[in-house]
Specification:
Chain A: Pfam families: COX3. Chain A has 200 residues and is mainly α. Helices cover 86% and strands 0% of the residues of chain A. Chain A has a single domain, classed as Four Helix Bundle (Hemerythrin (Met), subunit A) (Up-down Bundle). Chain A is built from 6 helices and no strands. In chain A, helix 3 (62-87) packs antiparallel against helix 4, helix 3 (62-87) runs antiparallel to helix 6 (167-199) and helix 4 (91-121) runs antiparallel to helix 5. Chain B is mainly α and 656 residues long. Chain B has 2 domains: 1-42; 43-651, Cytochrome c oxidase-like, subunit I domain (Cytochrome C Oxidase, Chain A), CATH 1.20.210. The chains are: A mainly alpha (200), B mainly alpha (656).
Chain lengths: 200, 656
């Protein structure tokens, strides 16, 4: 009857529509690239604007940074494992890998908050100099992205629990993992430009 | 307690100017009148169900159009106030501060809250119909974009009566826009009004790229796609690359003001010129973002009213794409006087002149389309024909400004003012008006009255030249922009008076258009055919106004100008109708989340404007909750049964 009819059509429309949303998300990632590109450009202009205040070289504590780098890289790997589990149709394994990814992401955010607190105690704040303004904005924007990703990930784990792997949740996980890998790539640039070049 | 409230109110509300009190009274009366009418006729539920929560691209387009016309009125009143102040030397009609606020809001409103929404209105009203789609790719996001724009615009306009208007120029250059020189909430209103509506614009860019790339009717390859849709694609590509730069730039300006950062400050290692570079990296593409869709409109109008195929279709597409790319390499021509090296200046001078090449190609294509065509001078065509000489002169003076050594003379003079008004009014406004006249019957089911429209047209056009031609000369005579007054000794009084007369003529033209719309609602020629102009593209194949699902059956496209080809085939008797096979139509459900979420964004903006962090926190939590709720909604669409489609089509006079 009417319901049955709707259902048979519903299926292709959904699949097709989910594909559109993946493309839309890719384009969103392009815009996010431009956003980070602008912040990197700002950082490059401000690289030596210390205004007599502390420099990055004096304050960065590399062991913590390197630890958080490896944590984030590992979380990118585990989010990949989550997608593999999804492709095998194993919903519990998928949720478990997402939980691991979220835990690593949370550790990354905690380390970043610690680092910022440390810097503020050492006298480097947003208002110290052009250099520190651009540092906190660039690194903080990345950290904010990671935090939003965590919020999103928790929501999706709940939806997976409730609905299992469907065309819709599959698309959502695809976009989430795309976002997560993208943040990883941004961090690699950030680690190189801000921290490695900063302490050299 | 009472004293505290009085003190708060005296800084919170703008006081001390009779014009402002008049505005306060009229705002309160208008709101009361709207509430009264909606309550009396029990229309609140209707308003909520049919408009505030709609995700239908046509209704969203209409709401964009109405808002942009209101903003055109507000920006236009600003312009007339400025012209009144400058009509004679030493006038004391506006004080310097008030004048600063007015030129600032005039520029910001006209570009961001008039041109942009009018453009998005046209995108929404036309693109899905033109490519044979039933909606945009992301209808919910589309509604969200509209409400973000609308509440951003409201936030910006609120500054007029609450807190005080921004007054540091339409792009808010530091150091003037920093706390030291612009304390108070004015500049924050500017930042948050634009930031909130800018997020909406970015989302619209993404939405239309996906719509155009993925939702065209079967058979419509990109090389058969109508030129307006191509222009929207070009414009949307520019939006996704340019708007993130704006978002970052004004966020950094806000951090300077709010958190004491040193991005653009004079001390602490800040660099104000970095702001100019960043803002124009967005700002220059922005002017092409608004003008390229106008080019698309002219291409549709010229072909329809010359009854010929567009001349040089491929070169038109090529030109729009070249403009989209080149627009990102010209930004520094806005400040040749900054004092960079000669090679940098030379690069930007040449890249600016290069833009004239694809633009010239387009002008020749329009002329060749008209050549030996059977031209009918209906309103859309009138505006198109008026556009060509106007844009030609505006473009030529633009090339003059691009000549860097000469630019040191023209920089920030009235020559520049005349130039950009000529391309923005002559190109963008004339283009959008042509588009509105052209597609109006499709949206509303009736034409706009020709006779009143012609009065409006001639007032606008003659007024335009009388207003802006003298300003080129004033520029050469040494008058720079943003002067709020001048003395008798400068010899500028005659040309300024002429210019003011021209501005008021354009104002009269606008009044004729408002009259035209109100008159035509009752008396306008009804469109019963769905194809009142004997046009060429798919949107004219369906009834006017278009049913909410647009196409009862998805059209099969065989060639460019497919509807024209179908009509030709019908006339020749070679037309073979495809068997009609109706299916249930998949449609998105309405949602109240976009308007609620945008209202929370408004709270964020308002709170941060006044430094009330608690209010911003409520706003951020509200936005997060809205996103969370939406993410958990899975029942977001429904099917229109075949019977209902058949009944709707029959009520529109189409038998299936």
């Amino acid at each position: 009857m009417a319901n049955h009819h709707d259902h048979s059509h519903g299926h292709d429309h959904h699949e097709e529509h989910e594909q559109l949303k993946v493309l839309g998300f890719w384009i969103f990632v392009v815009t996010d690239c431009i956003l980070f590109g602008t912040l990197f450009a700002t950082y490059a202009v401000m690289m030596n604007s210390f205004a007599g205040g502390p420099t990055g070289k004096e304050l960065f504590e590399m062991p913590g940074i390197i630890a958080s780098t490896f944590i984030l890289l590992t979380s990118s790997f585990t989010s990949g494992l989550a997608v593999l589990a999804m492709n095998k149709g194993k919903v519990n394994e998928l949720i478990a890998w997402l939980a691991v990814t979220a835990a690593l992401g949370l550790a990354f955010v905690v380390l970043e908050v610690n680092e910022f607190t440390h810097l503020v105690h050492e006298g480097a704040t947003m208002a110290t100099s052009g250099y520190w303004s651009s540092f906190f904005t660039l690194v903080g924007t990345h950290g904010l992205h990671v935090s939003i990703g965590l919020f999103w990930m928790v929501g999706l784990m709940m939806q997976l629990k409730r609905r299992g792997i469907t065309a819709v949740t599959r698309r959502k996980i695809t976009n989430l993992s795309l976002y997560w890998h993208f943040l990883d790539v941004v961090w690699i640039f950030l680690f190189t430009v801000v921290y490695l070049m900063g302490v050299m | 307690m009472w004293e505290d409230i009085k003190e708060f109110a005296s800084t919170f509300f703008v006081t001390g100017d009779p014009l402002i009190y008049g505005a306060d009274v009229s705002i309160v009366l208008t709101i009361l009148a709207i509430v009264f009418v909606l309550t009396k006729y029990k229309k609140w539920g209707w308003l909520w169900r049919e408009w505030l929560t709609t995700v239908d691209h046509k209704r969203i387009g209409i709401m964009y159009l109405i808002s942009s016309l209101l903003m055109l009125f507000r920006g236009g009143v600003d312009a007339l106030l400025m012209r009144l102040q400058l009509a004679f030397p030493n006038l004391e009609f506006l004080h310097a501060d008030h004048y600063n606020a007015i030129f600032t809001t005039h520029g910001t409103i006209m570009i961001l809250f008039m041109a942009m929404p009018m453009m998005f209105g046209l995108f929404n009203m036309v693109v899905p119909l033109q490519i044979g789609a039933r909606d945009v790719a992301f209808p919910f996001l589309n509604a969200l974009s509209f409400w973000l724009f609308f509440l951003g615009a409201m936030l910006f306009n609120l500054s007029f009566v609450i807190g005080g208007s921004p007054d540091a120029g339409w792009l808010s250059y530091p150091p003037l826009s920093q706390n030291d020189f612009s304390p108070g909430p004015g500049q924050n209103f500017w930042i948050w009004g634009i930031q909130i509506s800018g997020i909406g614009s970015l989302a619209t860019g993404i939405n239309f790229i996906v719509t155009i790339l993925k939702m065209r009717a079967p058979g419509m390859t990109l090389s058969k796609m109508p030129l307006f849709s191509w222009s929207v694609l070009s414009s949307s590509i520019m939006i996704i690359f340019a708007f993130p730069i704006l978002t970052v730039t004004i966020a950094l300006l806000f951090l300077d003001r709010f958190a004491g950062a040193h991005f653009f400050t004079m001390d602490g290692g800040g660099n104000p010129m970095m702001y100019l570079n960043l803002i124009w990296m967005w700002g220059h593409p922005e002017v092409y973002i608004v003008v390229v869709p106008a080019f698309g409109i002219f291409s549709e109008v010229v072909a329809t009213f010359s009854r010929k195929r567009i001349f040089g279709y491929k070169s038109m597409v090529w030109a729009m794409m070249v403009i989209a790319i080149a627009s990102f390499f010209t930004w520094a021509h806005h400040f040749f006087t900054m004092g960079t090296s000669a090679s940098v200046i030379a690069f930007f001078a040449i890249s600016t002149m290069v833009i004239a090449i694809p633009t010239g190609v387009k002008v020749f294509n329009w002329l060749f389309t008209m050549f030996r065509g059977r031209i009918s001078f209906k309103q859309p065509m009138l505006w198109t024909i008026a556009f060509i000489p106007c844009f030609l002169v505006g473009g030529a003076t633009g090339v003059m400004l691009a000549v860097a050594p000469a630019d040191y003379q023209y920089h920030n003079s009235y020559f520049l003012i005349a130039h950009f008004h000529q391309v923005l009014i002559g190109g963008v406004v004339f283009g959008y008006l042509a588009g509105i006249y052209y597609w109006w019957p499709k949206l509303f089911g009736f034409k706009l009255d020709e006779k009143l429209g012609r009065w409006g047209f001639w007032f606008w056009n003659i007024g335009f030249y009388i207003c802006f031609m003298p300003q080129y000369a004033l520029g050469f005579m040494g008058m720079t922009r943003r002067y709020y007054t001048y003395g008798w000794d400068r010899g500028w009084e005659d040309l300024n008076l002429v210019s003011t007369v021209g501005a008021f003529m354009m104002g009269i033209g606008f009044i004729f258009q408002v009259w035209q719309i109100t008159y035509s609602i009752k008396h306008g020629e009804r469109d019963t055919t769905g194809d009142p102009w004997d046009a060429r593209t798919l949107e004219w194949s369906i009834p006017s106004p278009a049913p909410f699902y647009n196409f009862a059956t998805v059209p099969q496209v065989k060639e460019a100008d497919d509807w024209w080809a179908t009509k030709q085939a019908k006339a020749n008797g070679t037309y073979k109708p495809e068997p009609v096979h109706l299916e249930p139509i998949h449609m998105p459900k309405n949602s109240g989340i976009p308007i609620v979420m945008s209202t929370f964004w408004f709270l964020i903006g308002f709170g941060l404007t006044f430094g009330w962090v608690w209010m911003a926190v409520i706003g951020f939590i509200g936005v997060a909750v809205c996103m969370w709720v939406r993410s958990f909604q899975y029942d977001t669409d429904y099917y229109v049964p075949v019977d209902e489609v058949r009944r709707t089509e029959a009520s529109l006079g189409r038998v299936l």
